[in-house]
Amino acid sequence: MTSRYAEVYQSWKTDPEAFWAEAAKAVDWSKPWDQVFDPTSGPYGRWFAGAEMNTCHNAVDRHVAGGRAEQTAIIYDSPVTGVKAKITYAELLSRVQATAAALADAGVAKGDRVIVYMPMVPEALVAMLAVARLGAIHSVVFGGFAPRELATRIDDAKPKAIVTASCGIEGKKVLPYKPLLDEAISIATHKPTAVFVTQRPQVEAVLQPGRDHDLGAAVEANRGRAVPCVAVKATDPLYILYTSGTTGAPKGVVRDNGGHAVALTWTMFNHYGIQPGEVFWAASDVGWVVGHSYICYAPLLYGATTIVFEGKPVGTPDPGTFWRIIEEYKVAGFFTAPTALRAIKKEDPNGEFLKKYDISSLRNLFLAGERADPDTVKWAEEHVGVPVIDHWWQTETGWAIAGNPVGLGLLPVKHGSPTVPMPGYDVRIVDDGLHEMKRGEMGSIVIKLPLPPSCLPTLWNADKRFEDSYLIDFPGYYKTGDAGFMDDDGYLFIMARTDDIINVAGHRLSTGGMEEVLASHPDVAECAVIGVHDEMKGQMPCGFVVLKAGVTKDAETIEKELVSLVRAKIGAVAAFKVAITVDRLPKTRSGKILRGTMQKIADHESWNMPATIDDASVLAEIEAAIRERGIGV
Ligand code: COA
Ligand code: AMP
């Protein structure tokens, strides 16, 4: 089949408003828009201004009313607990209403924030939908973050309530969540008035009378209560999702209701080639944007079936888990991160586990979250036997900036490229002066404003930070923070970040945030954290520290303390395992630490002596320290 991509992209470019107005017909609106796009509001304009709708109605109620009541909405498969369950759209509606009733009784109303700090259990999705139903705003925080990170988010979002579970289960480890949450609330200045806890059989959380509630009991007590969907403006926030910024303070990415529903619904067929009623599985976590968009919202908005998987690609119990799930639930479209495939490939290089399962229901395997390295893509193509489709996006956009649109007809796959810009995105490769680079030449990747529906209209309570972070450097364009090139066929190649963000096992982390933690150690004078290439996780953080003069404690003890400090302050997800003490850090004459050169040395890449270096001999010391510790080999 010839791809309709070029024609559809052109139709968007010719008339973006007509394109999105057509796509918006797939969403139920309680009030139509006054303008498809209002260029006068917000830092760069707003989509569907004047319109009203409710995201939960679109994701749940209308499917129950429209004949999908008995269709499975959510499949829960938890190899770590041995539990499997199926929740129909009718049952989902009942649970969402009961949860919404409990939240409303605790005072949660339109515009209020609710933090969801949950492992991969269906209650996480139910809580998100219940919050959306009330016209309130959720902020899901990934379970791998430490109390201090959670506290930062509590203070920024100022939630009225928090929904959590008694524990998460990571492989064989049971991690009690409630003590972490209690600690976070005690650190935070803002105090939520209510906490709802899903009590799991593995750990019973201690509830604080007056503030804490047993969520399961509250849901049962409120079964059967009708809680209507509260109409909100299309431009009202549906959620805030915090992501790493260039400083330790996370950025609260705001997603609005209307544009999000329109764009995500558009992607289910056009990008992923899925039909309503089919099973779509994103093996991510609700704490990340992939989990928001493709575990929760897009499949449900579209009337498909989604899977909540509580496990890992390997070790729960073996590298055949993904393929078992695909066989068992007849998954048609599967989305994971390259790092997960690398983990499977390492344990099952010849695909022996794969051969045990019938995965013939699968039509496409989608990859995102980090660069899909050609070796991994080739391995997957050979063993999984379906098109392997890389696509590139960010927390900020909520859906693919570039991809290979299955529904419009696949374009030829080029390994190492997420293919072409999706309708809505006018992507340019530029130099620092905003001059377009020639095809094949590396530059900063920017997107011409306005961004399409679903992309962040701003940061939570931080318009200025939004403009400073994304709009100021390239006037009229959104700065993605990624660098790469476009080839002669218009294919994009995403090669690196232009800021201090590193990508560890598909998780986006700020080295600046880790440096702030290292610098807080009383014995550390200065430090630098870089991302070092890692075979499985893509990158791993590595810290270099210079100790204060007169420190008598031995370096090895301090290094261990630093590793524990990052784990305690940021969380296990930072995967910070190596701190190296050095005498000096390499700097330019103006005092800037040469992190880029340090990274090249650690990755054993070729590097040139920076012309502005203050003392060239420091690099030899760094090289020796790296060699001594066996980094990057
Ligand atoms: N709650 C608490 N802790 C968590 C957690 C969670 N939800 N998720 C991860 N952690 C912990 C892990 O247990 C680990 O702790 P440890 O240092 O005590 O072992 C640490 O955070 C690092 O986790 P991770 O980077 O996931 O490493 P891993 O070795 O446990 O697993 C992979 C490696 C490749 C299997 C795993 O990273 C993976 O499945 N990655 C895919 C990522 C993904 O889907 N990203 C979403 C973008 S699409
Ligand atoms: P996150 O906001 O956590 O989804 O991370 C977004 C960042 O991950 C992007 O800005 C890229 O740096 C990286 N990324 C995501 N998907 C891809 C991809 N397909 N190819 C290359 N990099 C990617």
Automatic annotation (TrEMBL):
Q: Where is the signal peptide?
A: none
The domain of life for this entry's organism is: Bacteria
Q: Where is the Acetyl-coenzyme A synthetase N-terminal domain?
A: 5-59
| Domain AMP-binding enzyme C-terminal stretches | 514-592
Q: Which family is this protein grouped under?
A: Belongs to the ATP-dependent AMP-binding enzyme family.
Task: Please provide an example of a Pfam family that matches this protein in its UniProt record.
Answer: AMP-binding
Give the protein name, as stated in the record: Propionyl-CoA synthetase
Q: GO terms for CC? A: intracellular organelle lumen
- Upper classification of the organism: Bacteria, Pseudomonadati, Pseudomonadota, Alphaproteobacteria, Hyphomicrobiales
The organism of origin for this protein: Siculibacillus lacustris
Pinpoint the AMP-dependent synthetase/ligase domain residues. 64-448
* Positions of transmembrane segments: none
Q: Which PANTHER family match?
A: ACYL-COA SYNTHETASE (PTHR43347), ACYL-COA SYNTHETASE SHORT-CHAIN FAMILY MEMBER 3, MITOCHONDRIAL (PTHR43347:SF3)
GO MF annotation: an example: propionate-CoA ligase activity
Q: Which InterPro entries match?
A: ACAS_N, AMP-bd_C, AMP-bd_C_sf, AMP-binding_CS, AMP-dep_synth/lig_dom, ANL_N_sf
